[in-house]
Amino acid sequence: MDVNIENATIKHLDKLFDIEAQCFDQEAFTKRQISYLLTDYNSIALIAKVNADIAGFIIAQVDLEDNTEYGHIITLNIPPNYRRQGIATKLLNEMEARLKQRGIMECRLEVREDNHSAIKLYHNLGYQTMGKLEKYYGKKHGLYLKKSF
Ligand SMILES: CC(C)(COP(=O)(O)OP(=O)(O)OC[C@H]1O[C@@H](n2cnc3c(N)ncnc32)[C@H](O)[C@@H]1OP(=O)(O)O)[C@@H](O)C(=O)NCCC(=O)NCCS
Q1: Under CATH, which number does the domain 4-105 receive?
Q2: Beta carbons within 10 angstroms of residue 47's beta carbon
Q3: Measured in angstroms, how far is the CA atom of residue 116 from the centroid of ligand 1?
Q4: Atom of ligand 1 nearest to the CA of 91
Q5: Among 31, 34, 123, 139, which residue is least crowded by beta carbons within 10 Å?
Q6: In which element (H, E) is residue 133 found?
Q7: Whose Cα sits closest to atom 32 in ligand 1?
Q8: Other C-beta atoms within 10 Å of 121: how many?
Q9: Is the minimum distance from the CB of 89 to ligand 1 under 6 angstroms?
Q10: Can you give the pTM of this predicted structure?
C-alpha cells in the first residue's frame, strides 16, 4: 500500500471532520475548530493519502515557551479501516521532520491515560511521559508526553 503524506488545506475540512468524528465521540473537535486549525498560520496540518482516499491526518501547532518554539500535536486520527498499517507513525515522522526544518527541537502532546494504543505508538517513537493531567478530558485523566529531537 502506497501512503503519501501531503499538506492538508481547508478543502479537506468535510473529510477530516468525518474522520475526527469516527475516532472520538465527546472529545472530537468541532468542524469549526478543525476549520480554525486548518487555516491558522501557526498550524502544520498533514494528511495521509492512499490513492484518492484520506487515510488519516495530523495537526500540530507551533507554541512558545520561554522564547523557545516547540511543536504541539493537537490531533492525530486514523480511520478504523486504515489502522495498524504504520500510517500514524508516518504522519508523526513527517510532522517531526517539518518541525526540525523550522529549527524546532521539541514536540509535546496530551493523551487520555486509558488510550493505550496511542500511548504505545508515542512511546515506540521516543516520546516520554512527563506527568499526569488531572481530569484533562472531563472525568478522565490525561498524560503529558514530550520528545526532544
Ligand atoms: C492511535 C492511532 C492514531 C494509531 O494509528 P495507527 O496508524 O494504527 O498506528 P501505527 O500503525 O503507526 O502503529 C504503530 C505502533 O503503535 C502501537 N499501536 C497502534 N495501535 C495499537 C493498538 N490498537 N493496540 C496496541 N498497540 C497499538 C503498536 O506498537 C504499533 O506497531 P505494530 O502495529 O507494529 O505493533 C489510531 O488508533 C487512532 O486514530 N485512534 C483514535 C484516535 C486517537 O486515539 N488518536 C490519538 C490521540 S492522542
Answers
A1: 3.40.630.30
A2: 22
A3: 9
A4: 12
A5: 139
A6: strand 128-137
A7: 84
A8: 17
A9: yes
A10: 0.97
